[in-house]
C-alpha cells in the first residue's frame, strides 16, 4: 500500500502545486523567454521543477527516510534543487551549476556509498577499481548525466517523458532484485513526472527549468548506479542503455563542438531534437521519435540485463552509430518529412483527414468513451470483496459534495468532480486488486483487464480526432500511456506482488487520462459524467453497507 500511496502523493502534490507556483512565477518574472534557440513563442513559467521536487521528495520523506542511502540521495537532491532554483530565478553561470552538481555527487558517493567499483567483464581480472579511480569516475558520471538530462530538456515533454521511461524500467528492475527502496524512489519520481507532464506536453504551459532537469538527471544516474553496482547479477553496463538517448545526445553535440574548435559547453542547435525538426518533423513528432528510441533502449536493457557486458556495450555503440549516421545522411541529402500540405495526396491520410473534418468518426468513438468510462468505474466499485468501514460514508460525503456543486455552484462543478474522481479512482482500483467478490475470475477478469487497454485506445482516438482547439489534446503523452497500458498488465506475474502494483498504477493512470479527455470533450456539459460518478459512488456505498 505504501507504494501506491507514494505514487499518488507525488502525482497529486505535483498537480496541485503547479498552478499556484505558476501564478507566483508570472508575478516575479521567473519565466523562460522566447529566443533564437527556443521553440516557444511566449514567456513560460519555469517552476515545474519545484513542484516535481516537492511531489517526489515528500513521500520519500514520509515512508523511506530511515536508510542512509535515502538520506544521502535526499541531501544530494536538495543541493541540485537549491542550485536549480537559484539558476531559474537568477541565471547563474555554468561554473556555479557544476559546483552544485559536484557537491551533490560527492554527497551520494561519500555518504551513500555509491561508487562505480567494477566495470564487469570490460576489465577482466579486476575485481574492484582503485578507490580514487572509482571516486573520480562516479562523480564524473553523475555530473555528466545530470547535465545530459538538462541539455535534453529542449522540447515540451521531452526530458520528462524520457526520464519517465527510465524510472519505470529502473523501478521494475529494482523490484525484481528485491531493492524496494530504489523502487519506491522511482515510483515517487514517476508520479511527479506524470503530474508535471499534464502541464508540459505540447503546447506547454509550464517548464521544469534547471531545478527539474537536474533533479531528474541526478536521480536517474544515482539510482541506476545503486542498482547495478550492488550485490546483483545485473550488468554494470546497463546504465548506458537506460540513460541511452541523453548520453548519446550530449556526447555527440560536444564532439561536434570540439571538432569545430569551439567550447564543448557552448550553445548551438546540433541536438538530436534540433536535427529532427530540421528534417521537417513537427514538435510532437520529434518528441515521439525520441520517445520511441528511448523505449527501444529501456526494453533492450530489461531483456539483456544478464547478458555479456561486451554485448551490451557493443549493441549500444551500434545503435548510436546507426542513429547518428542516419541523421547525418538525412541532413546532407536534404531529406524531409512529408509536409502536412502533401498528406491529402495519399488516399489513406486523405480518408483520415476527411473523417476528422466531417466529425462522423468521432461520434461513435466519443459515445463509447462517454458510456464506457462510467460503466468501467461502476464495475470497479463493485469488484472489492470487502471494503473498509469508512468507505460508504466517504462515498456519501462526496456524493453530497457533487450534488451541492451541481445545484448551487455550477462553476465549481468541474473542480468537485475532479477532486472526487482523483480520490475515488485509486481507492477502488487498489481495493479491487486486493480481493474480489469471487464472482469475477478467469475469462471475465481478463475481459475486465482488457477493457482498460480499450479505454486507452478510445482516449487516443477521441483526442486525436477532436476538433477542439483548447483543453486536453492528443500529445506525445499518449505514447507513454499506450506503452504502459500495453506493457504493464503483461509483465510476468510471478515477479509481481499479490497487489499487482504495476497493473494498479497503469489502471489508475488510464482512468485519470480518460477523465481528462472526457471532461475536455464535454465542454463543461458535465451532467452525464456527474450521473455516472454518482452511480459509482452509490454502488460503493451500498456495497460498503451490505
Gist of the model:
This protein has 546 residues and is mainly alpha-helical. It contains 21 helices and two strands. It has helices spanning 2-27, 48-63, 68-90, 94-110, 131-152, 158-176, 180-200, 209-228, 238-242, 244-259, 272-278, 283-303, 309-332, 347-358, 362-382, 391-408, 413-434, 443-465, 477-487, 501-522, 527-545, and strands at residues 31-32, 44-45.
Describe the secondary-structure layout.
Elements: H1 2-27, E1 31-32, E2 44-45, H2 48-63, H3 68-90, H4 94-110, H5 131-152, H6 158-176, H7 180-200, H8 209-228, H9 238-242, H10 244-259, H11 272-278, H12 283-303, H13 309-332, H14 347-358, H15 362-382, H16 391-408, H17 413-434, H18 443-465, H19 477-487, H20 501-522, H21 527-545
Q: What characteristics describe this protein?
A:
globular, two-stranded antiparallel ribbon, 2 domains, mainly alpha, 546 residues
Could you explain how this protein is built, in words?
The protein has helices at residues 2-27, 48-63, 68-90, 94-110, 131-152, 158-176, 180-200, 209-228, 238-242, 244-259, 272-278, 283-303, 309-332, 347-358, 362-382, 391-408, 413-434, 443-465, 477-487, 501-522, 527-545; strands at residues 31-32, 44-45. The chain is globular. It has a two-stranded antiparallel sheet. The protein folds into two domains: 1-236, no CATH class; 356-545, no CATH class. The protein is mostly helical. Helix content is 71%, strand content 1%. Helix 7 packs antiparallel against helix 8 (209-228).
Amino acid at each position: 500500500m505504501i507504494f501506491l500511496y507514494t505514487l499518488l502523493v507525488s502525482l497529486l502534490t505535483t498537480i496541485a502545486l503547479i498552478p499556484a507556483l505558476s501564478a507566483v512565477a508570472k508575478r516575479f518574472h521567473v519565466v523562460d523567454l522566447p529566443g533564437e534557440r527556443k521553440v516557444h513563442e511566449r514567456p513560460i513559467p519555469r517552476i515545474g521543477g519545484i513542484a516535481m521536487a516537492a511531489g517526489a521528495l515528500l513521500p520519500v520523506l514520509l515512508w523511506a527516510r530511515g536508510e542512509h542511502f535515502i538520506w544521502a540521495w535526499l541531501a544530494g537532491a536538495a543541493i541540485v534543487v537549491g542550485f536549480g532554483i537559484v539558476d531559474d530565478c537568477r541565471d547563474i553561470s555554468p561554473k556555479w551549476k557544476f559546483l552544485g552538481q559536484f557537491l551533490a555527487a560527492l554527497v551520494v558517493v561519500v555518504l551513500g556509498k555509491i561508487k562505480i567499483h567494477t566495470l564487469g567483464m570490460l576489465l577482466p581480472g579486476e575485481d574492484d577499481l582503485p578507490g580514487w579511480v572509482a571516486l573520480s569516475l562516479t562523480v564524473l558520471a553523475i555530473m555528466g548525466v545530470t547535465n545530459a538530462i538538462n541539455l535534453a530538456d529542449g522540447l515540451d515533454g521531452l526530458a520528462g517523458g524520457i526520464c519517465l521511461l527510465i524510472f519505470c524500467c529502473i523501478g521494475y528492475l529494482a523490484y525484481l532484485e528485491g531493492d524496494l527502496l530504489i523502487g519506491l524512489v522511482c515510483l515517487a519520481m514517476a508520479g511527479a513526472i506524470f503530474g508535471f507532464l499534464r502541464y508540459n506536453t505540447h503546447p506547454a504551459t509550464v517548464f521544469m527549468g534547471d531545478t527539474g532537469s537536474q533533479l531528474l538527471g541526478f536521480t536517474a544516474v544515482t539510482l541506476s548506479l545503486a542498482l547495478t553496482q550492488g550485490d546483483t547479477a545485473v550488468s554494470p553496463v546497463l546504465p548506458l542503455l537506460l540513460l541511452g538517448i541523453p548520453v548519446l545526445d550530449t556526447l555527440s553535440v560536444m564532439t561536434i563542438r570540439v571538432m569545430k574548435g569551439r567550447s564543448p559547453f557552448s550553445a548551438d542547435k546540433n541536438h538530436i531534437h534540433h536535427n529532427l525538426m530540421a528534417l521537417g518533423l513537427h514538435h510532437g513528432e520529434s518528441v515521439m521519435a525520441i520517445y520511441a528510441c528511448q523505449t527501444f533502449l529501456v526494453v533492450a536493457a530489461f531483456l539483456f540485463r544478464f547478458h555479456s557486458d561486451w554485448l551490451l556495450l557493443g549493441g549500444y555503440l551500434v545503435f548510436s552509430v546507426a542513429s547518428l549516421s542516419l541523421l547525418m545522411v538525412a541532413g546532407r541529402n536534404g531529406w524531409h518529412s512529408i509536409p502536412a500540405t502533401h498528406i491529402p495526396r495519399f488516399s489513406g491520410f486523405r480518408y483520415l483527414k476527411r473523417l476528422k473534418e466531417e466529425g462522423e468518426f468521432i461520434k461513435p468513438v466519443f459515445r463509447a468513451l462517454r458510456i464506457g468510462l462510467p460503466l468501467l468505474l461502476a464495475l470497479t466499485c463493485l469488484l472489492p470483496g470487502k471494503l473498509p468501514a469508512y468507505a460508504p460514508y466517504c462515498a456519501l460525503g462526496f456524493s453530497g459534495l457533487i450534488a451541492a456543486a451541481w445545484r448551487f455552484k455550477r462553476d465549481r462543478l468541474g473542480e468537485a468532480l475532479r477532486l472526487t474522481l482523483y480520490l475515488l479512482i485509486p481507492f477502488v482500483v487498489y481495493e479491487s486488486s486486493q480481493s474480489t467478490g469471487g464472482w469475477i475470475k478467469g475469462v471475465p477478469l481478463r475481459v475486465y483487464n482488457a477493457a482498460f487497454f480499450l479505454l486507452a485506445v478510445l482516449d487516443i482516438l477521441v483526442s486525436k480526432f477532436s476538433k477542439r482547439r483548447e483543453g486536453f489534446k492528443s500529445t506525445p503523452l499518449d505514447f507513454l500511456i499506450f506503452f504502459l497500458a500495453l506493457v504493464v498488465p503483461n509483465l510476468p506475474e510471478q515477479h509481481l506482488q499479490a497487489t499487482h502494483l504495476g497493473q494498479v498504477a497503469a489502471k489508475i493512470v488510464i482512468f485519470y487520462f480518460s477523465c481528462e479527455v472526457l471532461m475536455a470533450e464535454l465542454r463543461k456539459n458535465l451532467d452525464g459524467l456527474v450521473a455516472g460518478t454518482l452511480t459509482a459512488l452509490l454502488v460503493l456505498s451500498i456495497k460498503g453497507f451490505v
